[in-house]
Amino acid sequence: MQNGPAVRRRKLGAELRTLRTGAGLTSGEAARLVGWHQSKVSRIETGASGVKPADLRLLLDAYQVRDGHLREVLLMLAGAEDAGGRHRWWHAYRGVLPPTYRDFISLESQASAMRTLETTVVPGLLQTAEYARAVTRAAVKDLDEERLDTLVEVRLARQDVLRSDPPLVLSAVLDEAVLRREVGGPGVMARQLERLMEAARLPQVRLQVLPFGAGAHVGLTGPFVIFSFPSTSDLDVVVLDQLTSSLYLERKEDLMAYTEAFNTLQFHALSPEDSLDYIAGIGDGA
Question: Residue 82 pLDDT more than 70?
C-alpha cells in the first residue's frame, strides 16, 4: 500500500520500463537517445523520482509510442494538462485540501472508468450541494463556514468528470443503508434521492442498489473505489478511503480481488432498472 503520488510514480515508471523493453532498448541506450545519464532513467522506472512532462515526451518519442490515448494518460500521470487543455483546477485549493484528497481528485480526473461500492453515503460525484454540506460538516470537525463552502465547492467541481468529453464511466453499487440514512434531514434526503434517479438515467452512469434483503455480502468490509485508465490496465488502482487518509492498492492480486468482489456485488444487487424503482419507492416512503 502506497500513498497516491508514490503509486502514480511507480505505475508510470513500470509502464515506461515496459515500453522501453518493447522498443528493444536497454536503459543505457534509452538514456543516450535522450541525452541523459542512465541513472535518471533507472530512477524514473523504479518510481524513485518523478518525470517532467517535457522529459516524458522525449522518452515516448524515443520508444516510438504513437498511441495517442496512452501518451495522454502517461503525460497526465506526469502532471501535464489533458488533451482538452483542462487545467488541474484542484491545485488552486492546495491550502485547503489535504494531499491525499488532492491526489484522489487527480486520479479521478485522469481515469476513464470508476467502480465504487458505497456503504454509508452517496458517492461524491452524485451528491447534491446540500447533501455534500451535511456530510462534510459531520465528517470534518471544527469547520468554519468559509472552509465548509470551499470543500462543498470542490465536491461539486469534481462532478464535471461526468460531463467531460469523453465522460468518466461510473459504476456504483450502493448499500441500502446509503439510501435510508437521512443525511441533512428528510428534505435534503428527498432531493438527494431525486438526484440519484436523474444520474442513474445518464448513459455513463450505472447505478445499482444492494438491498438489505441480500443479506451478508463481500462489501461488508467497507467501501472502495477502483479506477481504470484508457489504453492499459497496468495503471488501474484500488483506493480505500479511511478517516484520516487513503490507501492505494496497486498489486495485480489486489486489483483482481477487488474486481471480483465488485462483480459479485453487481450480481447480487438489483438491476439498474429495478434499482431506479427501489430508490423511487424509498423516496415515496416505502
Answer: no
